[in-house]
Design goal:
The longest helix has 11 residues. The protein is an alpha+beta fold and 139 residues long. It has a single domain, classed as Nucleoside diphosphate kinase-like domain (Alpha-Beta Plaits, 2-Layer Sandwich). The protein is built from 7 helices and 4 strands, in the order βααβααβααβα. Bound molecules: ribavirin triphosphate (RTP) and magnesium ion. This is Nucleoside diphosphate kinase. It catalyses: a ribonucleoside 5'-diphosphate + ATP = a ribonucleoside 5'-triphosphate + ADP; a 2'-deoxyribonucleoside 5'-diphosphate + ATP = a 2'-deoxyribonucleoside 5'-triphosphate + ADP. Its EC number is 2.7.4.6. Keywords: ATP-binding, Cytoplasm, Kinase, Magnesium, Metal-binding, Nucleotide metabolism, Nucleotide-binding, Phosphoprotein, Transferase.
């Protein structure tokens, strides 16, 4: 089934100049880009985006990290692209993420309070539509 997924290149990825590399991998996999915009998040937007994590120990450092610079907000499209992008991204912890994945090839532990893991990808059709509505309310 054709799906849409919200992908974010997080502030670490944008700051390190890896936006193009992430887009290259998405396009090389065969997914198409439906929306693409460089954005600076707000606390309010992140509270919606990360609603499932509000109150967890890593929530505040995560928000500070996500506010630390611009992010590339991307909507991708394709058959099973939600699962497919999660597979391209690799495990949440970039140290443990398999080589060949975005996090495994390009990420590492920087000794900070939150995992700086370069990208976000929606994890289910419902969360994808919810997240796309948050980042691109006009769509
Ligand atoms: P994402 O939502 O960013 O695609 O990543 P994910 O599903 O693999 O990870 P999730 O559990 O949804 O957590 C969201 C983000 O919070 C940060 N995190 N840090 N213990 C920690 O230090 C910790 N746990 C989670 C990561 O940036 C993670 O991607
Ligand atoms: Mg998640």
């Amino acid at each position: 089934m054709t799906q849409r997924s919200l992908v974010l290149v997080k502030p670490d990825g944008v700051a390190r100049g890896l936006t193009g590399e992430v887009i290259r991998r998405i396009e090389a996999k065969g997914y198409t880009l439906a929306r693409l915009e460089l954005r600076t998040a707000t606390r309010e937007l992140l509270e919606q985006h990360y609603e499932e994590h509000v109150g967890k120990p890593f929530y505040e450092p995560l928000v500070e990290f996500m506010l630390s610079g611009p992010v590339a907000a991307i909507v991708i499209e394709g058959e099973r692209c939600i699962e497919g992008f999660r597979s391209l991204a690799g495990a949440t912890d970039p140290t443990a993420a398999a080589p060949g994945t975005i996090r495994g090839d390009l990420g590492r532990d920087w000794g900070l309070k939150v995992q700086q893991n370069l990208v976000h990808g929606s994890d289910a059709p419902e969360s994808a539509e919810r997240e796309i509505g948050i980042w691109f309310p006009q769509s």
